[in-house]
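Subgroup meeting minutes
Present: P.N., E.W., G.H.
Scribe: E.W.

1. P.N. recapped why we're keeping a running log of single-chain structure predictions: easier to compare across weeks, and new members can see raw inputs and outputs side by side.
2. G.H. added today's entry (226 aa).
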Amino acid sequence: MLTRLTLALLLAATPLLAIAAPDRYRLDPVHTRVLFAVEHAGFSHALGTVSGSEGVLVFDPDDWRTARLDVTVPIQRLDLGDAKWNTATLARNLLDGERFPEARFVSTRVEPIDPTHANVIGQLTVHGVTREVTLAVTLNALKRHPLPPFRRTAGFSATATLSRSAFGVDGWASMIGDEVQLRIEAEAVRDRNADDPADAAPTDAPGTPAAPIDSDTPQPVQETTP
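Output recorded in log:
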C-alpha cells in the first residue's frame, strides 16, 4: 500500500518537475539603445540616444506574466549630437549626471496583449526620483543568432511617454518641453552554458571550426561583425 501511494505521489509531481523555469537573458549593450525626443522651444523636437544599457531579463514567450526586467541606463552616455548640448543637458539644473549617473528600470508586473505584445509596468528611477512607468513592448524575434557564438537572442522594441518634471528635471521650462517620448530598441542574449544544444553552432554555418590545416598556410583575416 505504501509503495503504491509513493508511486502515485511521484507520478502526480512529474508534470510539475517537467515545467522549465523561464530563460534568463542579459542585455547586449552594443545592440541596445534608448532614444528620446523632447520639444525644443516649440520649433522642433530634439533627438538623443543613450547607449550601453545593461541588465537582466527573465522571459518565457509562452507566459509573459512571469517576465522580469532589471535595467541600468548610463545617463552620462547621453548623446544629442553636439558636445555643448550634451554638457548642458547633464548639468545640475537638468539631469545632473555627476550626482545621478544612472537611471534604472525594474519591472513589477506584465500585462500581456497578444503573443508578441505586452505592457511592462515598473519603477523607473531618474535623477534620484522613482515613478511608475509603463512600457509598450513588442517582441520582434526570439531565435538563435545567425552569427557566432550562435546564442539564442531576444529582440524587443518599446515605447513610453513620461514627464521630466515628475522626476525633478524641471529646468528651462520655457525652452524645453515637459513631455519626453522614449523609444527603446534592445537585444538580449540567453545566459546559458556554451554546451547548451539550443545554442550549438550549426554544422554548415559560418564560423564552424574547420579541419586542421598546415600551419604554413596563410590564414584569412576574419572580419569584425557589426
